[in-house]
Design goal:
408 residues; mainly alpha; 69% helix; globular
Length: 408
């Protein structure tokens, strides 16, 4: 009976991961899903592709990595909705494969725990939403996970080539999102001896400091997050961090966070305690993954955000820490995973329904906020739509997604 149970479990996890992969692949049929940030990213990408640089008028200053990738597709004549989504899915596949290595080698988790964490990460409602949008988070997650995989293998094998590869991927991650600086402790902990770690810490921190000081955008982002009144800001940002930690842990969609914020703060506090507990347990064998988790929490606190999607590259490792800290609480773990998975399947199901909603897409997407913009771009304008368009999104749609779903 025990052997058959283990065999069934070993078949169930690959089947679950394959099913989730298929559910993500069908999202390739989705129209372009835009918000303020994604419209800005695509405006910058189109400006780069046209040879006008990456600062078109009216757009925020974003790191160059993601816009350059989309600009490359644009330059090749391949920048259409499905290829933009495919770009995300390629990096999501890279992240999932790398995650397996990091959890198995870096946190020493078993196959069942590792496979479950990989599946739950794909079932995150924030992941389901972000993977279909032209945003930098999924590309960043892929680069971070790949960097951690190489750094973890380097730490285990003492391989210099793997170490250099991990550092190169960390630099690429920084070009996609400034939060990549959180990989600095991971790089330091990839060195085996205390002396090497001290030397590398001095070198890496000095280099990171030079980059931050030489790039005014980094300091501007920092100062914008910390308003006058240091103590109050410190408390507010601590609460904000616990809220998004709780939302990610409970798989609560961003639209519902406000109604349950007090509960999420408590859940986020429990998640933070799990991190502390896991670090204490692992204190004699800390490695790159531990550096990434601790560095990310510091960056998320210092450069505050209220969006759960920014936590995606950290989330699977929080689950790994929870496994370490919780020990043998099997019943509670199964209950948690079941509830989390149900919420995630609902999120993916709603996303799939939206993907295949045809000409009803403008009204169904984002509560219809951009419906006039989509209808005007697709030649389906109704009376009064022209006065209610969001012009950056309109420009982007006319370039990258000019036809209604049924007209492609």
């Amino acid at each position: 009976m025990r052997i058959s149970s283990i065999s069934a479990r070993s078949r169930a996890l690959p089947a679950a991961l394959a099913t989730l992969a298929a559910l993500y692949i069908v999202q390739l049929a989705s129209p372009l899903r835009l918000d303020t940030d994604s419209a800005s990213y695509l405006q910058i990408a189109s400006s780069i592709a046209d040879g006008h640089g990456m600062q078109p008028r009216g757009t925020p200053s974003f790191p160059p990595g993601y816009p350059f990738l989309v600009a490359a597709l644009d330059h090749l004549g391949l920048a259409v909705p499905w290829t933009i989504v495919a770009l995300n899915l390629a990096f999501l596949a890279l992240a999932t494969a790398s995650l397996w290595i990091v959890l198995r080698r870096g946190l020493a988790l078993g196959e069942a725990a590792t496979g479950t964490i990989c599946a739950l990460t794909l079932l995150s409602s924030a992941m389901a939403k972000s993977a279909v949008m032209p945003l930098s988070e999924i590309v960043f997650y892929g680069l971070v996970a790949a960097s951690l995989a190489m750094l973890t293998l380097s730490a285990a094998k003492g391989n210099v080539a793997l170490l250099l590869g991990g550092i190169a991927l960390a630099a690429a991650a920084c070009s996609v999102r400034t939060a990549g600086v959180a990989l600095v402790p991971a790089i330091v902990l990839a060195f085996a001896t205390r002396r090497a770690r001290i030397i590398s810490a001095i070198g890496v921190c000095t280099g990171a400091a030079v980059v931050v000081v030489a790039t005014p955008r980094y300091l501007t982002e920092f100062s914008n997050g910390w308003k006058p009144g240091l103590m109050q800001t410190a408390v507010d940002e601590g609460r904000s961090l616990l809220t998004i930690l709780g939302a990610a842990t409970a798989n609560v969609p961003e639209s519902k966070i406000g109604s349950v914020s007090a509960v999420l703060v408590a859940i986020g506090g429990a998640a933070l305690l799990a991190v502390v507990g896991a670090v204490v347990i692992r204190r004699r064998r800390l490695g790159p993954v531990d550096g990434w988790v601790l560095g990310s929490l510091v960056v998320l606190y210092l450069w505050p955000s209220d969006s759960v999607r920014f936590l995606l590259p950290l989330f699977p490792f929080l689950l790994g820490y929870a496994v370490i800290a919780a020990g043998r609480w099997r019943t509670a773990a199964v209950a948690y995973a079941t509830v989390f998975a149900v919420i995630g399947l609902v999120a993916i199901g709603l996303s799939t329904r939206l993907t295949f909603s045809g000409e009803a897409f403008p009204e169904r997407y984002a509560s219809g906020i951009l419906a006039p913009t989509y209808r005007v771009a697709w030649g389906l304008a109704e009376r009064g739509d022209a006065a209610r368009v969001y012009r950056p999104a309109l420009v982007v749609l006319r370039r990258y997604d000019p036809d209604p779903p049924g007209g492609r």
